[in-house]
Amino acid sequence: MTTWRSTFSLGGDVSVNRLGYGAMRITGPGIMGEPRDVDEARRVLLRAVELGVMFIDTAHAYGPLVSERLIGETLAPYPADVVVATKGGLYRNNRGAWLADCSPATLRAQLEQSLQLLRVETIDLYQLHTVDQRVPVSESVGALAQMQREGLIKMIGVSNVYVDELRAAQGEAQIVSVQNRFSVGDDSPVLDVCERERLAFIPWHPLRAGAVDTERSLRNVAERLGATTFQVAIAWLLRRSPNMLPIPGTSSVQHLEENVAAAALALSDDDFRALGGA
Q1: Residue 135 and residue 221: Cα distance in Å, rounded?
Q2: Hey, what's the torsion of the CAs at 247, 249, 255, 261, to 10 degrees?
Q3: Distance between CA atoms of 234 and 146, rounded to whole angstroms?
Q4: Would you call 62 a catalytic residue per the annotation?
Q5: What does the pLDDT look like over 113-162, one tens digit per residue?
């Protein structure tokens, strides 16, 4: 059976274990400002690496700038096998709204900040965080491709895209990953494309912001297996596709350890189908 300890190859030559860590929640309430417990946030990052997590995902907009800064302060210089991914193209206003700006100038400015905060010379994986309806996807990704040629980015990914937007992005650069909203029981034509073309599919909101804990079908399976609903949801994602690279996030070491333990959870065929698997 495929588990997270099997690896997925990003771009054909960078392998990571299939369960990553999403660093959105090492910020303050509403994903704004400093975390309530900075020391615990640092412990989470260090423990993730200790547990074998090789893929850490963050973004310019998380904090904003807070998540990237804490990752850089805590983990740099990074272990050779750790891939740090970040995203640009979203910003937060003073009320915390998420607003798109994927213009080439903004993407360059955000990427330069990310390089400084993450304490690297090159971003391992830089993802277009959203599609800006005022800027063609081809123009935004074309700007990332230029920065890749300059050596500031190793690999390029996209987020929150439909198939036609993915195709437009692929016309400008080699795309190695897609990060879209996806959780237990979902289906997606974009995932189908990723499977055919060996792109990583990185599901955000994989635990529906904790809502999976209230879902009866998940609770039934969890009780039978002696697991948590969150662990069952992660196990379902890992089984759903060999291209799936879940990145559950948490600000707690205990919850991080529970999430990683989900990799060892084996769902029966009946349980997988009952939760929405084919």
Answers
A1: 45
A2: 0
A3: 36
A4: yes
A5: 999 999 999 999 999 999 999 999 999 999 999 999 999 999 999 999 99
Assess contact for 59 and 31: CB atoms under 8 A. no
Neighbour order of strands in the sheet with 200-204: 21-22, 55-57, 83-88, 123-128, 153-159, 175-181, 200-204
247 touches 202 (CB < 8 A): yes
Distance between CA atoms of residues 177 and 158, nearest Å: 6
Catalytic member of 21, 62, 91, 126: 62
Separate counts of helices (H) and strands (E) for the chain: 10, 11
pLDDT at 209: 60
The DSSP code sequence of 183-248 is -TT---HHHHHHHHHT-EEEEESTTGGGGGGG-HHHHHHHHHHT--HHHHHHHHHHHH-TTB----
- Measured between its terminal Cα atoms, the distance across the chain in Å is 16
Q: Where are the domains of the chain?
A: 7-210+241-252
Fold for the domain defined by 7-210+241-252? TIM Barrel (3.20.20)
- What per-residue confidence (pLDDT) applies to 236? 93
One-letter amino acid of 207: L
How far does Cα 250 stand from its chain's mean position?
Answer: 13
